[in-house]
Write a structure and sequence with these properties.
The protein has one domain. The longest helix is centred in the first third of the chain and has 7 residues. It starts with 7 loop residues before the first helix and ends in an 8-residue tail after the last strand. Strands 1, 2, 5 and 6 form a 4-stranded mixed sheet that branches. Strands 3-4 form a two-stranded antiparallel sheet. The chain is α+β, with helices and mostly antiparallel strands. Helices cover 17% and strands 11% of the residues. InterPro entries: Puta_zinc/iron-chelating_dom, UCP006173. It holds the Pfam family CxxCxxCC. This is YcgN family cysteine cluster protein.
């Protein structure tokens, strides 16, 4: 997520109550991201639950049990919980998964609190979402929704030791 600007007009429109994700424009789509940073956590698929052909995609959790770690992409600003290079993220991190209208059906690997996942399932925005809080993430930080103060950058760990960083807090759903 980049530093999304939740404009007063965008907030006042309450577009998310009427529009489906598929019908949102770019500004509306981007504002649905709550900016928690959980999507930037490294996730691993349990090798014992991988299909025999060994093929695992970075987007399909149906191929095995997904484990979350507290290791983040090196491009995540751990204080703001935003990507340092949002516009160039796919160039810098080729396996960065960009959610879009075409891969919504495959977002099972995202944490349950993900606003895109919630909206796709018809649950609506959580009460802590910035669009419902004057464009601010304060409530999210207070409730521990964001990754702030919980993570370590991938450039500070040996990824071969990922098992030491497995966490369950990204699976919690607060609302």
């Amino acid at each position: 997520m980049k530093g999304v600007l939740y404009s007063k007009a965008l907030i006042a429109s309450k577009y998310w109550e009427e529009l489906s994700l598929e019908n949102m424009n770019t500004a509306q789509w981007e504002a649905i991201c709550d900016g928690c940073g959980r999507c930037c956590l490294h996730k691993f698929v349990d090798s014992e639950s991988v299909p025999e052909d060994g093929e695992v995609t970075s987007i399909d959790s149906q191929q095995g049990e997904v484990f979350y770690t507290n290791i983040t992409c090196y491009q995540l600003n751990e204080k703001t919980c935003a990507c340092k290079s949002y516009e160039k993220r796919k160039e810098l991190v080729p396996d960065c998964v960009s959610l879009n209208k075409h891969n919504l059906k495959d977002i099972n690997f995202m944490p349950p609190s993900c606003s895109y996942r919630r909206m796709h399932k018809g649950e609506g925005l959580a009460s802590w979402h910035p669009l419902l809080n004057k464009g601010k993430k304060t409530k999210m930080h207070e409730l521990g929704i964001t990754v702030r103060n919980k993570v370590i950058s991938e450039d500070k760990v040996n990824l071969d030791d990922f098992e030491d960083y497995i966490v369950t807090w990204p699976l919690s759903e607060i609302d």
